[in-house]
TrEMBL record:
Family annotation (InterPro entries): TR_Rrf2-type_CS, Tscrpt_reg_Rrf2, WH-like_DNA-bd_sf, WH_DNA-bd_sf
UniProt keyword DNA-binding present: yes
Gene3D superfamilies, per database record: Winged helix-like DNA-binding domain superfamily/Winged helix DNA-binding domain
Protein's UniProt keywords contain DNA-binding: yes
One function term, GO molecular function aspect: DNA binding
Protein name (database record): Rrf2 family transcriptional regulator
Lineage: Bacteria, Bacillati, Bacillota, Clostridia, Lachnospirales
Length: 146
């Protein structure tokens, strides 16, 4: 399984909105500059996040985007499933998949299920608030003494 730039950037955008959440809307141009993402691509990603209700948009001169809820309400898994679709490593584990005729005799199915469970445990166990905390701890641990 490989996470695309769309998925990685969507997580970064949500983190950026959480880190810069001062009550005012944030312009795409500002997010793009901080994250090193093209504005056009960022607009596509934000449109997906907005449609899902993860971000709120405000039009006008003072408009922009802000995170829709508390950062603790969004897991990395939610964002990745929104942008990537299923995180299942094989088609037979995807939600709504037809039952494979070999599932009763498939020696590898357990391995794929364990992998899927492990991925879900990690991405569903980390929230945007956790990423904010990790960033803040990392910055605290930087030693600027000369």
């Amino acid at each position: 399984m490989k996470i695309s730039t769309k998925g990685r950037y969507a997580v970064r955008v949500m983190l950026d909105l959480a880190l810069n959440n001062n009550g005012e809307c944030i312009k795409v141009k500002e997010i793009a500059a901080r994250q090193g993402i093209s504005e056009k691509y960022l607009e596509q990603i934000i449109a997906v996040l907005n449609k899902a209700g993860y971000v709120k948009s405000v039009r006008g001169a003072q408009g922009g985007y802000r995170i829709a809820k508390d950062p603790a309400d969004f897991t990395v898994g939610m964002i990745l499933r929104l942008t990537e679709g299923s995180l299942a490593p094989v088609a037979c584990l995807e939600e709504g998949a037809d039952i494979c005729e070999r599932c009763d005799t498939c020696e590898t199915l357990e391995v794929w299920q364990e992998l899927y469970d492990a991925v879900n445990k990690v991405v569903d166990g980390v929230t945007i608030a956790d990423l904010v905390e990790r960033r803040n701890k990392r910055l605290e641990n930087l030693d600027y003494s000369i």
